[in-house]
């Protein structure tokens, strides 16, 4: 029965592998495209991918949007294989979703209209006191004794 157990284990493992499927997702990539030829090359290279639902190329914003059951890293690799070595994942978000859109790290002159870079914003912690107790009673602080 050792051989039969081994064979049954083999079949259960393969059935688990087949049931694993990539989730449906949208991948956005920033690619500089100058002409119709560049746009066509990028679109055709991505169109051949397995599990693809749609490809949208926006040359004005230098943006390629791919929707389907695809791996984002493979999509980026396909785009870079066309000769567009500077391709990267879309680094921008709409400016109305960012708390401080015009801080030096987020604001980018090269960003499309209405977008800023997606950076972590430094916001104060809601639990942290606004003034430290050591600065309230400091000798170097001209307004040191604000309590007395």
Automatic annotation (TrEMBL):
> What coarse category fits the chief subcellular location reported for this protein?
membrane
Output one GO BP term. Answer: plant-type hypersensitive response
Q: Please provide the record's keywords in A-Z order.
A: Cadmium, Lipoprotein, Membrane, Metal-binding, Methylation, Prenylation
Q: Where is the signal peptide?
A: none
Q: Which GO terms describe its molecular function?
A: metal ion binding
Q: Where in the cell is it found?
A: Membrane
Q: Which CDD domains match?
A: HMA
The UniProt record lists the keyword Lipoprotein: yes
The reply to whether Metal-binding figures as a keyword in the UniProt entry is yes
Q: Which domain of life is it from?
A: Eukaryota
State the membrane topology.
Peripheral membrane protein
Q: Where is the HMA domain?
A: 24-87
Question: Which SUPFAM superfamilies does the record match to this protein?
Answer: HMA, heavy metal-associated domain (SSF55008)
> Where does the record place a coiled coil?
none
Q: Which Pfam families match?
A: HMA
What does UniProt give as GO cellular component? membrane
Which PANTHER family does the record associate with it?
A: COPPER TRANSPORT PROTEIN ATOX1-RELATED, HEAVY METAL-ASSOCIATED ISOPRENYLATED PLANT PROTEIN 20
The entry's family comment says: Belongs to the HIPP family.
Name this polypeptide is given = HMA domain-containing protein
Species this chain originates from: Escallonia rubra
């Amino acid at each position: 029965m050792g051989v039969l157990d081994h064979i049954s284990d083999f079949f259960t493992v393969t059935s688990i592998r087949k049931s694993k499927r990539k989730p449906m997702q949208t991948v956005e990539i920033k690619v500089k495209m100058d002409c119709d030829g560049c746009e066509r090359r990028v679109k055709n290279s991505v169109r051949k991918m397995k599990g693809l639902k749609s490809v949208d190329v926006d040359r004005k914003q230098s943006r390629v949007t791919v929707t389907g059951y695809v791996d984002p890293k493979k999509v980026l690799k396909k785009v870079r294989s066309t000769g567009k070595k500077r391709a990267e994942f879309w680094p921008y978000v709409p400016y109305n979703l960012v708390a401080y859109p015009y801080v030096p790290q987020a604001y980018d002159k090269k960003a499309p209209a209405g977008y800023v870079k997606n950076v972590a914003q430094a916001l104060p912690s809601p639990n942290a006191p606004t003034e430290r107790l050591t600065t309230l009673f400091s000798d170097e602080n001209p307004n040191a004794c604000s309590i007395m």
